[in-house]
Automatic annotation (TrEMBL):
Function: Transcription factor that acts by binding directly to the RNA polymerase (RNAP). Required for negative regulation of rRNA expression and positive regulation of several amino acid biosynthesis promoters.
Record-level GO cellular component terms: cytoplasm
Protein name: RNA polymerase-binding transcription factor DksA
Gene that this polypeptide is encoded by: dksA
Assigned keywords, A-Z: Cytoplasm, Metal-binding, Zinc, Zinc-finger
Protein species of origin: Alloyangia pacifica
GO biological process: regulation of gene expression
A Pfam family the protein falls into: zf-dskA_traR
Subcellular locations according to the entry: Cytoplasm
Quaternary structure note: Interacts directly with the RNA polymerase.
């Protein structure tokens, strides 16, 4: 196991340092782990709330409203479950030294894009091309 990289609290990756150096990698690793922990905490809270909210509501309208709220909450949790899988994938790419590089072109993904969307696997240009192709094929 490698030693932990020192990272000041106010550190932000900069374009003028080597791409995906130890500090940048550690910054994104911590960001991804914090995001994952937040999602998992929200999921635990949701499960507890759903277990507590299991009660018999006599009014049909109130019951329908609560069931709609539950369904929406469960859909949100399902999307977050998929997001956790993408976060885990990004963490694996960090461990393998592949994080931050476009899976299509192999070029570095901009630090701004990674900071905004740390699970990004494509550069902005490759993502736009992918979406245009997807739209064209969807319209067929």
């Amino acid at each position: 196991m490698k030693p932990e990289t020192f990272l000041p609290d106010d550190y932000r990756p900069a374009e003028d340092e080597p791409f995906m150096n130890e500090r940048q990698t550690e910054y994104f690793r911590r960001k991804l782990l914090a995001w994952k922990n937040d999602i998992l905490a929200e999921s635990r809270d949701t499960i507890e709330a759903l277990q507590e909210a299991t009660r018999n509501i006599p009014d049909v309208t109130d019951r329908a409203s609560e069931e709609t709220d539950r369904a929406l909450e469960l859909r949100t949790r399902d999307r977050q479950r998929k997001l956790v899988a993408k976060i885990d994938s990004a963490l694996r790419r960090i461990e393998q030294g592949e994080y931050g590089y476009c899976e299509v072109t192999g070029e570095p993904i901009s630090l701004k894009r990674l900071d905004a969307r740390p699970i990004a696997t494509m550069s902005l240009e490759a993502q736009e091309r992918h979406e245009r192709r997807e739209k064209v094929h969807r319209d067929d």
